[in-house]
Design a protein that fits this description.
globular; 15 helices; 24 strands; binds nicotinamide-adenine-dinucleotide; single chain; 7-stranded mixed β-sheet
């Protein structure tokens, strides 16, 4: 891969050597070979990056709106020109199928452009005042925001984590995942350096798993950090949110899921099959809002299952750079083991594999399982792999109860020809998002993205990110209408 700074991170506007010139290897999950070496930052390095972000805070906040937007727009243009580098990184370090890498890169450019527009959306309010004061609710940026992102959509989720926050006047310290440090951060640092962003506004710290706790803790606890934007697993997100909470810092945490696709008995089965196939198998099922439970009414279960299995058998698996091999590798051994453990547990408890269930290297066959019940691991735990578990139910009420029987609550899909019924089911689901006649996998730059229950706290994208990463203040201007009690007056 085209990256030549094996022991440098980016802060205060320059590439800087990390302590002891430490570095770590990044693996290509498809080939098993090392595809890059990047800097392994430790405590001193992240402290320096946070200080640089704090130093830049005031001047960035005070820069005109259009100039701030200008930097984001130029960065979007530069990313577009370097599209191939981002696609290569997503494929090589992240195991992305090339189609997914192209989509992610293009969508990330769009996300940067839409974030630029948010500079003009730090809206406040003029409030009525009992005393005739000018009474204002005013939004201000928080200051330094720590952004921690995952490996599955590393480019998009880093950008979603910081772009609006930065546009509205916050400065950023970004830590990408150790699995995807290039697409998740270091290449973005090259982009912002190239567009001449003022020093310290955007800083990237890469580190290995050995240093992640030390670096991560500092990114929350450092007194100069005022807000946290985290996307990743529920286990880590919970620790981060509780640390942030104890320090009374704002944290927006976007976490795991176990999303349901509900197929009602009046569903267009072709649409249901396509939504299930895309939802369960796009990026090998390694998406927070992947379809991880297909809940189908028994009246249509047989036809749906037969057609789904046929469709899944047609998915190519192999070299992620090939357009036809839509199923690539899982990210690492740990994920592979987790997926296979869940499939094995389901089979041992009476479920049946209709296709798939085997693996070679990190390539796990797209798998469909029937006879899944709530007492199986695959019903409850996030799988994050290419597995579609089918649960058959008698009616709509049972489908909703089954879908809600989860610690998670990110997204959901409902397939029905009756739009009113679809809306009613959506209303009764305990999720942050619900999509009628679509898969649970869906995102747009201006929508409130986020979950309930163990899927997270807070909402990302557009004006919802403005709310998360700004402070609402009350400012008044007294004009003589306010009287203090007599003893206080001269
Ligand atoms: P992860 O929680 O293992 O890692 C996420 C990030 O946290 C990485 O950058 C990692 O280095 C960092 N991290 C790990 N330990 C840390 C610590 N102690 N302190 C600070 N940072 C630490 O998650 P992952 O495996 O990278 O991503 C997969 C998970 O992310 C899945 O559960 C998935 O559902 C979730 N996810 C959620 C969303 C969403 O928007 N809700 C989007 C994508 C992924």
């Amino acid at each position: 891969m085209n990256f030549d700074k094996p022991s440098q991170i980016f802060y205060a506007g320059s590439w800087r050597e990390v302590s002891n010139s430490a570095s770590f290897a990044v693996n290509n999950p498809a080939s098993g070979e090392v595809c890059a070496r990047v800097a392994d930052a430790s405590l001193e390095d992240v402290k320096n990056a946070i200080s640089a972000a704090a130093d830049a805070s005031e001047s960035w906040r005070d820069l005109s709106h259009s100039r701030r937007a200008g930097f984001l727009l130029k960065a979007a243009d530069t990313m577009e020109q370097r599209q191939q580098d981002f696609v290569d990184a997503l494929v090589e370090e992240g195991g992305s199928w090339i189609g997914k890498a192209m989509f992610e890169t293009a969508y990330s450019v769009e996300a940067l452009r839409s974030a630029a527009a948010m500079v003009f959306h730090m809206n406040g309010e003029v409030l009525p005042s009992e005393y005739g004061k000018v009474s204002l609710a005013v939004r201000q940026p928080l200051g330094v925001i720590s952004v921690i992102s995952p490996w599955n959509f590393p480019l998009l989720l880093s950008i979603r984590g910081f772009a609006v926050a930065m546009a509205i006047g916050n400065t950023i310290v970004l830590k990408p995942s150790e699995e995807t440090p290039l697409a998740g951060g270091l290449l973005l640092a090259e982009v912002f350096a190239a567009v001449g962003l003022p020093a310290g506004v955007f800083n990237v710290v890469s580190c290995s798993r050995d240093h992640v706790k030390q670096v991560g803790d500092e990114m929350i606890a450092n007194p100069l950090v005022r807000g946290i934007s985290f996307t990743g697993s529920t286990a880590v997100g919970r620790q981060i949110a509780s640390k942030a909470g104890s320090l009374l810092k704002k944290a927006c945490v976007e976490l795991g899921g176990k999303d349901a696709l509900i197929i009602l008995d009046d569903a267009d089965i072709g649409r249901a099959v396509n939504a299930a196939t895309f939802g369960s198998f796009m990026h090998q099922g390694q998406i927070c809002m992947s379809v991880e439970r297909i809940i189908v009414l028994e009246a249509v279960a047989e036809e749906f299952t037969r057609r789904l299995v046929e469709n899944v058998k047609s998915l190519g698996m192999g070299d992620p750079t090939s357009m036809s091999d839509v199923i690539g590798p899982l990210i690492n051994e740990k994920q592979l083991k987790n997926v296979h453990d869940q499939v094995t547990d389901a089979v041992q408890n009476g479920a049946e594999i209709l296709t798939g269930g085997n693996y070679e290297g990190l390539f796990y066959e797209p798998t469909v399982i029937t006879g899944v019940r709530p007492d199986m691991k695959i019903f409850r735990e996030e799988t994050f792999g290419p597995v579609a578990p089918i649960i058959t139910v008698a009616d709509v009420d049972e489908a909703i109860a089954m879908a809600n029987d989860s610690e998670y609550g990110l997204s959901a899909g409902i397939i029905t020809r009756d739009e009113n019924k679809g809306m009613e089911v959506a209303r009764r689901l305990e999720t942050g998002m619900a999509h009628i006649n679509d898969s649970s996998v869906s995102d747009e730059v201006n929508v409130p993205f986020g979950g309930v229950k163990n899927s997270g706290m807070g909402r990302q994208n557009g004006r919802y990110s403005v709310d998360e990463f700004s402070e609402l203040r009350w400012i008044t201007l007294e004009r003589g209408g306010r009287h203090y009690p007599p003893p206080f007056n001269e």
